[in-house]
Design goal:
single chain, 83 residues, mainly alpha, 88% helix
Amino acid sequence: MAEPDNLVLSLLREMRGDMSSMRAEMAAGFKSVESGIADLEKRIDSVKQAAFGESVLGRYAAAEVEDRLAEIERRLAALETRT
């Protein structure tokens, strides 16, 4: 007597096949999954460094503007006291 098909087992087998094909596609795209992860980590680190660099440059630019404004305010105060 043939055992009836179990829908859950059929779906799990199909999912297993899909996962295997995904692994094969990933392996084709990357030399290995580990090297692919390492490559992604490098890319994330470079984005973090770029963002941090822009942040530091922004701080320097803001400090320069603050210095210029302080100098202008000092000169304006000096002019106001003359009159």
